[in-house]
Design goal:
With 426 residues, the protein is of the alpha+beta class. It is 37% helix and 21% strand.
């Protein structure tokens, strides 16, 4: 991710708010230029990192603001895959042998600068030219570019703007995000990043997650924590509708001087992430299993007068259970305000089933419909599932059908998605 030095020149303060001057293609020149940078890096596959860095730095003569190019180059290099040179793990051993040979022959033998290399090569059992090749092969600048990102100029523009926004959060005291949908990716990122957070409902279809920022007083390793916090932003911007509101601690005047808190806001219209705030790219739903896809397809195919008023949304209603989160697969929402939740239990392991049933039991929701695959039921599994659920349990043999699910929803749907008491900050 970008460093503070990459984003500081493009921050503006206005009436207590902090704003980022994102890069825009207002004159139609930025995207073609970024497209050329992407092609340049792809042509350099197989070259050392230092060569790639130098090639990008030489592009400064083509831009008006070299500070922009420095951030763009950093964002592009972070997307590249570099690998160490073969044999670079022996570089420390090679240096030790060569420097020892040089020390024994100090001052150097006139007219024979290669003598230390031959001595080190004999000691290591390597050709002299291999000693020279491996001498500093473990430096990061010597790593070889094996794969450059397959992206165009518009994608690089979106990525750079996203990295600017992420770098601002390195000085965040508190970050509040809300979204409608996309919660699976958001919560997965929050959990993997090991952040301190709490969740609460913010409306009929919206939830609010408050995350402790790296600039909070009690965070002991703010740089590492800030890098982990930045992992949440890409997942957030992939949500259908989202907002981010952060409190940023900024120094005034000279370094070490007094600091003040500014507000930093972003939403789905910001030019960040996939699509960069544009709405002309349709979002394709993704499913974790064929059972989920089958139920969604069945709903879409049979949507008619008898289904009027119901809407099926995937992973829209997170449930807080103490220090855990439970995210049902689907939410059935009626236009009159009634809500039913749907969770599919398909293939499972004993550990997965135990964890899932524990969450279902802890939720205790009468408007939660369990749709269970009968083919893998064995021994006490059916009775365990029936006992764990406070709502209806529907069994299917081949694929789940939306008809029985909607019938159950008509019986148990409540006026809102009833949730247990919200989780405290973890």
């Amino acid at each position: 991710m970008l460093r503070r030095t990459h984003v500081l020149p493009f921050l503006r303060q206005r009436e207590g708010n902090l704003e980022v001057v994102f890069l825009e293609d207002s004159d139609g020149r930025a995207v073609p230029y970024l497209d050329r940078l992407c092609r340049l890096v792809r042509r350099l596959e197989g070259r050392p990192r230092r060569t790639v860095v130098q090639a990008l730095r030489r592009q400064e003569r083509r831009v008006r603001d070299a500070r922009r190019l420095a951030g763009i180059a950093k964002a592009l290099l972070d997307l590249c895959e570099f690998r160490p040179l073969p044999g670079s793990e022996r570089s420390p051993e090679v240096r030790e042998a060569l420097f020892l040979a040089r020390g024994e022959r100090w001052p150097p033998v006139p007219g024979d600068p290669e003598a230390p290399y031959r001595v080190a090569a004999d000691l290591l059992g390597l050709p002299p030219e291999e000693v020279e090749r491996l001498l500093y092969a473990d430096r990061p600048s010597e790593r070889v570019l094996v794969r450059a990102p397959r992206m165009d100029g518009q994608a690089l523009l979106d990525r750079y703007n996203l990295e600017l926004a992420r770098a601002v959060l390195l000085d965040a005291v508190r970050v509040v995000v809300s979204a409608r949908g996309g919660w699976r990716g958001i919560f997965r990122a929050v959990k993997l990043a090991r952040l301190m957070y709490r969740i609460e409902p913010a409306g009929p279809e919206t939830y609010r997650v408050e995350i402790t920022g790296p600039a909070a007083r009690f965070v002991t390793r703010p740089q590492r924590y800030g890098a982990r916090l930045a992992l949440v932003v890409p997942a957030l911007v992939r949500a259908p509708a989202w907002t981010l509101d952060a409190e940023i601690l900024r120094a005034e005047g000279a370094p070490g001087g007094p600091r003040r808190t500014l507000r930093f806001r972003l939403n789905g219209r910001a030019p960040v992430g996939p699509g960069g705030g544009r709405t002309d790219r349709p979002r394709q739903p993704s499913y974790d299993s064929r059972w989920e896809r089958a139920l969604a397809d069945d709903f879409a195919e049979k949507l008619g007068p008898e289904r009027e008023g119901w809407r099926l949304a995937r992973e829209e209603t997170p449930i807080a259970l103490g220090d855990e989160l439970f995210l049902p697969d689907f939410t059935l929402r009626h236009q009159d305000g009634r809500v039913a939740l749907v969770e599919i239990l398909g293939f499972w392991t004993p550990e997965y089933l135990e964890t899932k049933l524990r969450k279902v039991r802890a939720a205790g929701l009468e408007n939660l419909i369990l749709v269970v695959y009968r083919g893998l039921a064995a021994a006490d599994v059916p009775s365990d599932i029936e006992a764990a659920s406070a709502g209806p349990v529907l069994w299917f043999a081949n694929r789940p059908r939306i008809g029985p699910v909607l019938e159950a929803a008509e019986r148990v749907a409540s006026q809102r998605a009833r949730t247990p008491r919200q989780t405290p900050q973890l």
